[in-house]
Write a structure and sequence with these properties.
CATH class of the largest domain: Alpha Beta
Bound molecules: flavin-adenine dinucleotide
Number of helices: 17
Largest sheet: 7 strands, antiparallel
Radius of gyration: 23 Å
CATH topology of the largest domain: Uridine Diphospho-n-acetylenolpyruvylglucosamine Reductase, domain 3
Number of strands: 18
Helix content: 25-40%
CATH architecture of the largest domain: 2-Layer Sandwich
Number of domains: 4
Structural class: alpha+beta
Shape: globular
């Protein structure tokens, strides 16, 4: 979509006057800085806008609607699916200045926050009240609550605690025509009217702009312990995982990294070099809760590990050490760039019962095509990050279609999803329709038209023809 330069100039002049020119940037270096996310795909916006309040957002939406300018919300730009890319140009609305934690309500155990709050900062703050906000994507130190809600982010503790939507109690959003919708509130239960709030969560900025969220908090677990377990057989970790669930233990985290991921991570490599045999993978299992229950669950996990003859395990019950070890896992994704500058990083989710077959088929596909594959991720909820690594951009682009199509075929065949937590965004929009039911897809498109009749909100995302 080519934008009319005169309309754009008029819209920018109007914005300068209604929200203040100190919030509107059109300089080349700003446009470049906000033209990409972690997919490393580039699309330049025509202006970058930093609202400081909900009323600023309302005015931006009104101006964009009047002049038919696309608007793309942006948190920290860590999206792995091209979510905040301005494919059709227009305005990027960066929420970095709307970053206040407005309230921590100890009695009702909720936090009221602006969308630009960094997830880790919220968690640091609520910890002072003995509370905990569980959704923690590995990008937790950078990503924002607005971005987390829009992608319905998961994280390393989702297996026990669930994903962002499970902690959403209320939202304030601005529609494309500038209306403010107040949805939900501080209550855990409410069944009045349609649940627009949970529709907007996970909608990747295509239905409305989030200006405030009310988030559920829970008491901070008192005790945590972590096992770091080496596996010498390719699928040994799946048998252990199934056995742990069978025993009635629900760890708060079960994370996995394969041999390729170990090879690029210095600390994981050091750990693996300590072992005499050839390590195929490392699995991290964390248990949390009251001290007595953690103690008895740890005992069960130790028994299960020794029934598989696994004794060579690192165990920690020190919170600082546990956090430090988790950085090994959190660093896997950026470290993979060391294998080759370019990767096709997918984010599949399959039923636990199909995990082994899915991984096997993906590896076979990679082997048959001589592709380098690295797999890591949230083993506990069978949401794995599958990476195909290339030495050059050209090679990656040449193989993109083939790889995405094959992954989609395999995952859909096993009743899984082509995106467990990263969203469809721009990257996977050509494949989402393979997974969705035809009638459901039609209703989704009708909803999009209802919220955004002129397709101005984050266009060219999620669906093939949007
Ligand atoms: C190293 C690394 C590790 C990661 N690990 C995980 C992980 O474990 N789990 C996981 O789920 N994800 C993970 N991600 C992906 C990413 O961090 C998440 O999707 C995160 O939620 C994006 O937040 P953000 O603030 O960067 O949003 P952005 O990338 O800026 O935007 C994401 C989407 O949200 C929309 N959006 C942002 N703000 C608003 C708003 N106020 N209103 C409406 N729409 C808005 C954007 O338009 C876009 O569609 C990882 C990414 C990286 C780089």
């Amino acid at each position: 979509m080519m934008l009319d330069q005169r309309q754009l100039d008029k819209a920018i002049r109007r914005l300068n006057s209604v929200i203040g020119k100190e919030k509107v940037f059109t300089e080349e270096y700003y446009l470049s800085l906000y033209s990409f996310d972690s997919t490393k795909i580039f699309f330049k916006p025509d202006a970058v806008i930093f609202p400081e309040s909900e009323i600023d957002v309302v005015r931006i939406a009104q101006v964009a609607s009047e002049y038919k300018i696309p608007i793309v919300a942006r948190g920290s730009g860590t999206s792995r699916s091209g979510g905040p890319l301005p494919i059709c140009g227009g305005f990027v609305i960066c929420f970095a200045r709307m970053n206040k934690i407005k309230e921590i309500d100890r009695i009702n155990m909720v936090a009221v926050v602006e969308p630009g709050v960094i997830t880790q900062e919220l968690n640091n703050e609520v910890a002072k009240y003995g509370l905990y906000y569980p959704p923690d994507p590995s990008s937790v130190k950078v990503s924002t609550i607005g971005g987390n809600i829009s992608h319905n982010a998961g994280g390393i503790h989702a297996v026990k605690y669930g994903v962002t939507k499970n902690y959403l109690l209320g939202l304030r959003v601005v529609t494309v025509d500038g209306r403010v919708l107040r949805l939900g509130g501080k209550v855990l239960k409410s069944v009045v009217g349609y649940d627009i709030m949970r529709l907007i969560a996970g909608s990747e900025g295509t239905l409305a702009l989030i200006t405030e969220a009310i988030l559920r908090l829970i008491p901070k677990p008192q005790t945590r312990v972590l096992f770091v377990i080496p596996f010498f057989e390719e699928y040994g970790w799946i048998d252990v995982l199934l056995k742990i669930y069978e025993s009635g233990v629900l760890p708060c985290s079960i994370e996995f990294m394969d041999k390729e991921c170990i090879s690029v991570n210095r600390r994981a490599r050091e750990f693996s070099e300590l072992k005499k045999e050839d390590i195929q993978s490392i699995v991290f299992i964390e248990l949390d809760g009251q001290p007595e229950s953690v103690l008895s669950e740890s005992k069960k996990v130790k028994e299960i590990l020794s029934s598989f003859n696994i004794t060579d395990v690192i165990f920690s019950d020190d919170v600082h050490e546990i956090e430090d070890i988790w950085d090994i896992r959190r660093d896997v994704s950026p470290s993979l760039n060391l294998l080759g500058g370019y990767k096709i990083a997918d984010d599949i989710s399959v039923p636990l019962s199909s995990l082994r077959d899915t991984v096997h088929e993906l590896r076979r596909f990679a082997h048959e095509n001589s592709f380098r594959i690295a797999i890591f991720g949230h083993a506990g909820d069978s949401n794995l990050h599958v990476n195909f690594i290339f030495g050059s951009k050209e090679e990656m682009e040449k193989n993109f279609e083939k790889i995405m199509k094959s992954i989609t075929d395999i995952v859909v065949r096993y009743g899984g999803s082509i995106s467990g937590e990263h969203g469809v965004g721009f990257l996977k929009k050509g494949y989402s329709e393979e997974e969705l039911d035809t009638n459901a897809l039609e209703v989704m498109k009708q909803l999009k038209r209802l919220f955004d009749p002129h397709n101005l909100l984050n266009p060219m995302k999620i669906f093939k023809d949007c």
